[in-house]
Amino acid sequence: MVRRAPREDSRQDAPGVSAPKTTAAGNAAVSSIAEEVVGKLGVKRSALTLLSLNQKKGFDCPGCAWPDPDHRHTFEFCENGVKAVAEEATPRRVDVEFFAEHPVSELAERTDYWLGQQGRLTEPMLLEAGGTHYRPVSWSEAFSVIAEELAAMSSPHEAVFYTSGRTSNEAAFAYQLFARKLGTNNLPDCSNMCHESSGAALSETIGIGKGSVLLDDLYQSDLIVICGQNPGTNHPRMLSALERAKREGARIVSVNPLPEAGLQEFLNPQRPGSYIGKGTELADRFLQLRLGGDQALFAALGSLLLAAEDKVPGAVLDRPFLDEHTTGFAAYAEHVRSLDRDEVLRATGVPWSQIEELAEEFISAKSAVVCWAMGITQHRDAVATIREFVNVLLLQGNIGRPGAGVCPVRGHSNVQGDRTMGIWEKMPDQWLDRLGAEFDFQPPREHGLDTVDTIRAMRDGKIRVFMGMGGNFVRATPDSDLTESALRSCALTVQVSTKLNRSHTVTGRRALILPTLGRTEKDTTGGQEQVVSVEDSMGVVHGSRGKLRPASSQLRSEVGIVCGLAERVLGSDDVDWCAMAGDYAVIRDHIEAVVPGFTDYNARVAVPGGFVLPHGPRDSRTFSTPDGKAHLTVNVLRPLEIPEGRLLLQTIRSHDQFNTTIYGLDDRYRGISNGRRVVFVNPGDLHDLGIADASYVDLVSEWRDGDRRAERFRVVSYPTAKGCAAAYFPETNVLVPLDSVAETSNTPTSKAIVVRLEPVP
Ligand SMILES: Nc1nc2c(c(=O)[nH]1)N[C@H]1C(S)=C(S)[C@@H](COP(=O)(O)OP(=O)(O)OC[C@H]3O[C@@H](n4cnc5c(=O)[nH]c(N)nc54)[C@H](O)[C@@H]3O)O[C@H]1N2
Ligand SMILES: Nc1nc2c(c(=O)[nH]1)N[C@H]1C(S)=C(S)[C@@H](COP(=O)(O)OP(=O)(O)OC[C@H]3O[C@@H](n4cnc5c(=O)[nH]c(N)nc54)[C@H](O)[C@@H]3O)O[C@H]1N2
Ligand SMILES: [Mo]
Hints:
Layout: E1 2-3, E2 16-17, E3 23-25, H1 27-41, H2 43-52, H3 79-88, E4 93-94, H4 96-101, H5 104-107, H6 112-117, E5 120-121, E6 125-127, E7 135-136, H7 139-151, E8 159-163, H8 169-182, H9 196-206, H10 215-220, E9 223-227, H11 231-234, H12 236-247, E10 251-255, E11 265-267, E12 285-287, H13 294-311, H14 319-325, E13 326-327, H15 329-337, H16 341-348, H17 352-364, E14 368-372, H18 374-377, H19 382-395, E15 405-408, H20 415-420, H21 429-439, H22 451-459, E16 465-469, H23 473-476, H24 480-488, E17 492-497, E18 510-515, E19 532-535, E20 540-544, H25 558-570, H26 577-582, H27 584-594, H28 601-605, E21 611-612, H29 616-620, E22 630-631, E23 647-652, E24 657-658, E25 661-662, E26 672-673, E27 678-681, H30 683-689, E28 696-703, E29 706-717, E30 724-728, E31 753-760
Parallel strand pairs: 1-29, 3-11, 4-5, 8-16, 9-10, 9-14, 10-12, 13-22, 14-15, 16-17, 17-18, 23-30, 27-29
Antiparallel strand pairs: 2-26, 6-7, 6-18, 19-20, 20-21, 23-31, 24-25, 27-30, 28-29, 28-31
Helix pairs in contact: 1-2, 1-3, 7-25, 8-25, 9-19, 13-16, 13-17, 13-19, 22-24
One ligand MGD binds next to helix 23 and strand 17.
């Protein structure tokens, strides 16, 4: 399989390269914000947009899921949140003339960057079977096409309903109801590629798949360990929280193969005082470990905590907590006591003395939080790794008390809320019982397809209709060539989208684009101004009100689309689709009846700042596992075997992208400008491999079914951990084998692909 760069990508493989930065945010970020917004939106629209962002009566930032502090500055936003907003609020339009001008075959040759730059989608478009161009259709005709294809299925399981993580609670709830009324749990989502491993490990060990800390816990914590996360780029507002935590006495540790800017030094753009002079050095300690080394690291930490307890009994472990609230201690202790130090060194590449120092940090801290993101979840042993985080925290009773806990940092702004609303291919029976009772039907019980299994089912010709509620399925998923041909085997692909992307160009026999309102836009569905709600990474639910004039008068809200479609397909027999679309408060009443924790939903969502969902372990050390206890677990170490002359490649985000949306071609903090086809390699590895810095290579991934190739990447000598290379996604998704997935969670191993570098002229 060979993947050539699209033609205009030649510009992207001759990047400028300079030394990486250590400082994030601050002045550079502020001027970049001004440039970004005023350049794209004009002065007036910029002011309205920014003044509404993350304000108590404004809209939730579509950037990331980091929570808003209680006492917001006039501007609680960050450079990358502003880019996300500017991308949505762009004055550029993809209209009927655009589609008449550009055949789909031509659009399929364009880069992600070019497609995104074309602007907002404006009206429903249909690609007929055998057609060369999309043509405009009415909403009614679009719904008829979908209804016709759904009616032609021999089983409801031939339809798949994907969700990205920007969809509001209200739209997500209506969408899953539609799928389940139709008779299927085929509800894959971006979480399957994101924090699925976190949900799996946390549900098993503490009884709930969500993080157990609130912002106040970070402020009160003694020790915050950040593993596998690059907040300077992906959660910049987290840096303000870390800065405050640090001022209040926290120690901060970064565990990462890359020395990421921001954790090293931070200039707070929200506090003008901090522009002067140096910023705050956030991380007190940096452990540069190998890709996938975290499981071994935390097993080693556990063994060191036990050894310290042996020396001074009662000084380290929280015995009363372990006795009262946990099971599995004895087996766990026996397991980590027999840990092989050489194996830990091989897996982590971190000297034992540094691990001992980190263990000392845990021992002397009164409370500790572990934060993590994609550097942890997208590995084969991700679930085992997160269970190992839980083990270390449980030993010291660091769950369910102030300043302590687990903190998986979510990505998409409402990805956590979508799950709470039932967007999951395997919702528990109890939840389905309540859904069935509220709407008087029997929801399907058979588990549905997740993202990877959806691709397998399409490949095997088992899927007739694919619908995407947002996102960019074909680019976000692994094994691009295989996934593209899998999607082409569908009879119909439907994308509900704000902006043009590659998923509109790689289609089933027929394809629909349904343009929708973004988070920033005023939603007047049913003739009244509607409010939606979202849940952040810490389980806080709050309202979001768009302020801007919609990009086109033909856009419909996601709720409007789902309810309109459901009514067409299912009739208005027993579900009040029309009432739901006319007033989202009706949907919230249904949610209140089905989803625990949403009592008085409508009243509480109207309160500025919203409300916090209950969380047993955090609130009362209640663990809803089968035995009511938190579980220490035994996790066998299985080091990855990297053949001689090969590197382990991780696929990451640049500072100028939101997942598959490419804002620009720079990665300022890593010193890259005007290009994306770069591969970061340790200078020692370059020396060993005999490859020169600044030369060009093909990246060839080796898997049991053969090689996959991404062509022509510029080599950048970079201080990444030895043996561990990095390049940007989605250009490298072609290298991720579909079957290379995390145990249990089925998440693609996007952070660990065995590659060889083949020099090219
Ligand atoms: N501006 C912007 N914001 C975003 C996004 C975006 O694309 N752009 N995406 C959003 C989404 S959906 C998500 S999920 C989050 C993603 O947020 P991140 O997880 O920060 O995103 P990545 O770029 O994938 O970075 C992974 C980090 O983990 C490190 N890492 C990789 N493997 C390992 C490992 O084995 N061990 C350790 N300890 N570290 C490792 C990498 O070096 C890198 O620093 O951000 C969200 N916010
Ligand atoms: N190799 C590799 N692959 C990865 C990852 C990785 O680290 N490495 N990360 C994975 C992760 S963490 C995630 S979350 C997934 C992301 O997967 P997705 O969520 O599927 O992808 P996005 O790029 O976020 O989707 C962007 C598109 O969403 C649409 N959109 C934007 N806003 C809205 C809206 O408000 N409503 C609607 N209906 N549409 C909207 C726009 O049309 C835009 O083109 O990618 C995964 N893929
Ligand atoms: Mo994500």
